[in-house]
Batch of 3 targets.
Target 1
Amino acid sequence: MTRRASIILRTRPLAGALLTAAAVLIGWQQLSAQPIAGHNSDAPVDYAADRIELQGRQDRVVLSGNVDIRQDKLRLRADRTNVSFTNAGSLKIQQITATGGVLVTRGDEVAHGDIAIYDFDRRIITMVGNASLKRGGDTLYGKRFVIDLNSGVSSADGRVSGTFSVPDRN
C-alpha cells in the first residue's frame, strides 16, 4: 500500500509569495506561515532573456536563455519560458510555463523545480520535479507544490520531507 503525504501551509501577513517555512514527514499537518495572498498578480511583468520569439498565431511568446521575469516582489528565473496570452485589444498574460533550472524567489524565500506554471487567471503557481522550498533554516522537498495566491494556502504532494528550524527558547 502506498502512502501519500501532503502538507498545507497557511500564510501570515508580510511574507513569502512562494515559499513558506515548514516541513512534514508523515500525514497532514496545518501550520502558520507567510501569506502569499499578499502578492499583486496584477502588477506589470518585466522580462529579460537572450532570445525572444513572438508566435502570434499561437498567442504565445517564447523567452529562452537566462530568462529573468519579475512581477512585484516575485522573481522567476529559468532556461526557457512560454508565455501564453490573449490579444483582445491589449495583451493579457494567461499563463507562464518555465522549464530548466527554475528558480523563484521573493525576499529570503527560494523555490527550485524543474518546471513552474503560473496561471494568471486562477492565480495559482505550480512547481513540479525536484521541487524544494527554503526559507531561513526551514526546508521542504516534494514532487509537486501548489501555491494559491488567492487564499495564501500552499500544498505539497507526493513524498514530502524537510527540516524545521527550532527557535531559541531563551
Note: DSSP finds no helices and twelve strands in the chain.
Target 2
Amino acid sequence: MQKLSSLSDLASLLPESDRKQEQQSVKKGYDGKPQKLKVVHDSKGRKGKTVTLITGFQSTPAELDDIARKLKSQCGAGGGVLDNSIEIQGEHSEKVKKILTGMGFTLAK
C-alpha cells in the first residue's frame, strides 16, 4: 500500500464521477439560485483602515462563522461576521476570491 502525501493523492483514489460532482457543487441560497458574492475594499468609518468586505451571503450564522474562520486563517488576518457579510482586515480581495470560488461560491462581476 502506498502512503498518501497530499490531497491530490487522496483524490486520485476517488472514482471519476465523485470528483466531477465535487467540482460542480455550487453553493445555493435560500431561493435555490447560486449565491452571488461581492468582494470589495472598504475604509469608510474605520479611521482609514482598509478591510475586505464580502457581501451577498444567504447562509446560517454557523456557516458564516465557519467560512469567516477559514478566510481569516488563510489570509493571516483578523475579521468578523456582521449582518450576513464578512470583514477581513486588510486588502485580501484576490486571495479571498480564489478561496471562495474554490469553496463553490459564485462571484458577482
Note: The chain has one domain: 26-107.
Target 3
Amino acid sequence: MDTAPLQGAKIVVTGVTGQVAEPLACALARDNEVYGAARFNDAAARQRLEAAGVRCVVVDLLDGEPNGLPADADYVLNFAVTKTNDWDVDLDANSGGLAWLMEHHRDARAFLHCSTTAVYKPMGHHVFAETDPLGDNHGVWPFLRTYSICKISAEATARWAARRFDLPTIITRLSVPYGDRGGWPSVHVHMMSNGSAIPVHIDAPSVYHPLHERDILRMLPAFLESATVPATVVNWGGSTAVSIEEWCTYLAELTGLEARFEPTEHTIDSVQLDLTRMHEIAGQTEVDWKDGMRQMVAARHRELLSS
C-alpha cells in the first residue's frame, strides 16, 4: 500500500521548528523545494533547517495573510500550533491563522492540517473512531487549558475552508509522535532521571498510539493523495496501542532508571484509537514501538542506555 515518496514538489511546512515538523521538512527537502514557516525565535533551529535545504520564512499566523509563502505551492502541511493559554490569542492564531493560510494556498493540490486526538471527549477506555464525540480533553492540564478547544475550532475552520476554496484537505488527528527529536516518551525519561513520578490516570491503563517520525514521513504521500472536498478526517497513530505504564516500564529497563507512577484524576484520560480508516489509506505502521523508543533513547539520552 506504500505510495511513492514526494519528489520535485513545492511544499510549505508550517510550525517547522516543532518536534514533528522539523525532521519531516528536513527529510522532504532532499527531493523537494521546501519552505518552512515559523516565528523562528530559535536561531539554532533555523540553522539546522537551512543546512538541510529548507527555505525558512518568518511567519506569524496572528498577523493575517502569510504573504511571504509561495502561493503556488503544490502541498501545504500545517503543523503550526499556538499554546499561550490566552483564549483570544490562541483562537485567533489557530483558527483565524489557518483560514488565512488556506485562502493563501487555495490553489494547492492538497492541504494537510495536523490536529490531535486531544479533540475527543474523555470516555474512559472507549476506542475512538473519527465520528465519535469531541470535547475538552486537555483542559484538565492548567498549562494547556486552551489546547483541545482551539484544536476543535481549527478543525472546523479547515472543514469550512476546504469547501469554500475547493481545496482538497485531510485533517489528521495525531496521537503520540516521537523520535530522535523527542516526544512525550522522551519527557518521561527526563522525569525518571530526575526522580519524578509520572502522572497516569486513575482509570488505568493510560493507552495511546505512539507514532515514530519515520512512519510519519512514510505515510504522508498517501494522506495527501486522500485529501478531499469536503475534508477527510483520519486518526493517525502507531498501529499498536501502548500504555504510558507499558512504555515507561520498558524505558526503565533500557536505562536502569526507576519508573514510578502517580495515579491522579488531574491528567488526561486514555485515548485508544480505531485506526481502520488510517490503515485503509496508508497501511500499517512499520516501526515497532520498542525499536523506535530504543532509538529515541540512543539519540537523546545515550548516556542512560544500560545495554
Note: Residues 105 and 172 are 18 Å apart (CA to CA).
